Every structure is written in structure tokens, then in C-alpha cells.
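Re: the 471-residue chain
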Amino acid sequence: MVHQHIMNVLPKRLVSSLWASQETRISLSNLTHLAHHQQVPAATNASFLCSELPIRYTHILRLLSSLNNDALSTPLIRHVAHRYMQDICTVLQPSLQYTSPRAFGHAVRRLRKRQASSLIRLRYALTSSSTATSQSVMLMDHINAIGLGIHFLLDQHISWHRDPDHALDNKAQSLSPLDVAYQAIEDARRYCADTFGSSEAVPKVVIKKNEAEHALELTHVPGTLHRMLYEMTLLSLQAQFHQEAQSQRSRRVPLWQRCMTRVGLNAFSTRPLADMQLDVFGGPTSVGFRLTSAAPLTHQDLQHDIPRDPLGLPTCASILRQPNTLDNNKSINMHGELVTSANDDTTRHEDDDDHLEWHLWSGWRMTKTLAAHFGGNLDVVSAEGLGSTMYLALDRDTHILERYPAILPSRSLSHQRHSSSYLALQHASSQLDAFLRAIAEPSSIPLPAGLTSSPPIHRHAVSLAAAVGHA
């Protein structure tokens, strides 16, 4: 299997050292220009990525190792673990950081897409409405924190090394929160208009600037700030539509009249949806946003969920197609490179899907992860009959280190006292051995003399309970 090929290429001691290594946390100041200097930030260089990414990939595997053997043997978890091991093998190629900038940028883009699809698969596996537990939800939060740090490193490398004439500039920089807010609200309203079929039915969002003595300027990544405000607006708009739909059902409005009202064709339609308001204000240490809506958020809106559109339909279900067979046509050559057969259409289609990167950070919990990564905070106050108010605060200090799980748990009781981010090499090696055995295919595990393996059993991509829970 794939992980056996990888372990034949990579020395086990090297993987064990990555398992026990300490990450190098960065701040926004490490992603911006130094004062009076115009060189590319060191945190986006190829040498730093090639040394830091394997550690973070291995830390995700270390988090997954806290699951029990039954969970690790499921097709989704096993497939994601194999993919991360492939990515470790790719980044550790000695020639990668010395290749041309164009070739390295292509490899980084592919790693970013694979990272997005792996995290979405984990959301299906760990936060299913039918199987989620408090431990699995907390584990997903820790994985998302590490995954976001990986995303920032890959994304900022692409932003700093792309063509200078490229229209999209997503470098960490000093920006105007008001300009980003206007664009995010416009994009969220347009998305809802395209989904529900009419722009007139979408509530307006009024932006008010708080006149204060502190300038409304912030150093952040433009795409990240845009995504946080976009998701906040989209959640509030969805709540408004759902509240109106429940109100119409309670008034027993005929179906044909509800459809005509939804598209704006009924002259005697119900009252328009109430406008929302976004207040933007600056303080001495932070910049804040307050979004007020007349509709409350439900408990389900604030939980982990798979990526969905405003109608509640899954948007990334295609990545679940036969995850247990995707690696059958892959192997690792003598140079540590992943070789894929020409008929592997599923993986090629997945890696070419740019929408996965966008849908990855959808939802309330993912937005909270984005806000908290560099010291910010996102919270909400919601009550039936009173509506909801979201609060987003982003710190002005660019030297706050990124959020990273303080404790990487261990599944083994004998290793609980070694479950901090620092781990002795011998305990790391034993944990790695147990993890590799758990994710190994049953056919690859040696059997005692006199025993024969049972016939192969087809494993479905998603359990029946999970499929029904997400339907």
C-alpha cells in the first residue's frame, strides 16, 4: 500500500523525529515587509516551507492517532492519513526547494488543494451529525487550527511569488476594513440572490462607520478578512430567509403564492425582510465589527457541519467518491515522488477543483477559527424574538503568534504524560508504530502461521448513518 511505499523511502527515524518536533509559530509580522525593506518575507521562502510543512503535516497525523482503531480503520480516515504521508514525502524531496520558482509554485498550489480536500473529508468523518462527539469536535477544532496555519504558509507563498502584475493581491498588508466590508457584503448578497432567484428579496446591509479618534486601518490578509465578513453576512441572510419561510408556513400561505413571493412576482407579497446593519469601529488595540440582524441563529448554525449552500444542500459531496480505491493506482518511486497512473481520473478531477479551497472555510466554526488564528475573536448573541448580533474583534498587534494546539493528545494511556507538544523520540516512535498499524490495510498486516485472511469486503465511502444525517 501507499504508506508502505512511503516508509520504504523515508527513514522511520526521520518520521519519528518529525512526530516529536516542535513547530515554528509565525505572526502577521512574519508575513509582511520589514521596515524600509522590500524583500520577500522569510516565512514564505521555499527553505522554510520545506522544513516547517512536514512538521505540521505530521502533527495532524499525531492528532488523528488519538482516535481508536475502529475510527482509524474507516476509509475516510485511512485515506486522509495516506494523503498526508504522501504530502510529507513530497515536501521532503531534497531537490524540491532547489527547483525553479515556477515548479515550486506549482507544487505549492497542488499541496494547497490537497489540504483543502483532506480537511473537508475529515469534517465528514469527525463532525457528522449522527456520529459526532465532544471529543471528535474538539479534535476537529485542533486539526483546523493546524490546517489554517498550513493554508496561510502556502497561500502567502503564492501571493508573494506570483506575477507582480497579477490583479489579485492577497499579501498580508495594511488595509481599510471598510473597503473589505463593502465587497464582502456585496458578494454575500449576490450569492443569496443567485441562490433564491431574486436580488429584491435579499435584505440590505447598512454599513455605519463609528467616528472615533483611532484610524480604521488594520494589518491583515485581505482574503481572510473578506471571508470572515462574508460568512457572517451569509449566516445572517440565511437566518432571515429561514425565519420568513417559517412565518409563511405558519400563516398557511398557498405554495404558489410563496413561490411567486420568493421571486418577487406577487404584488400583494408579505412585508420585505428587515435590513441588517454592520457597525465598524476602531479602538486603540483592535478593530471591531458588529452585525445586527432581526433573525436569530439556531443551534445548528453554530455547530460544525459539512460545506453547504444557503438552501442547505452539500456542495462538496463529490470528494467522497470511493476514497478507499483512490490510492490503488499510486506508488512511490525511488526518488520519493508520488506516481499516479493515467487512468486515475477521480483524483485528477479532485485536484483540479478550485471550489474545494473556497468551500473549506464555510460555516460558523470555521469562521471562528479564522478569527482566532492571530488573536482575534468572533462571538454571537442570539435570542428568539430579539434577533442576533455578531461581534468580530481583530487585534492590531502584528506580533501575536498564531494559534496552535497546546496539547497534541495521545491515544495510548501509557503515553498520556508525554502528550504535550514536546515528546521524547522513543515514545514518538512507539506512537508512530501503533498509528501505522491502525491505518494499514487488513491485507498488508502479517497473520500468524496457520491463519488465512478473509475475503476482501467492500467499504463504502460514508456510513449509512452519516449519509442519512447529512441528507
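The mean pLDDT is 81.
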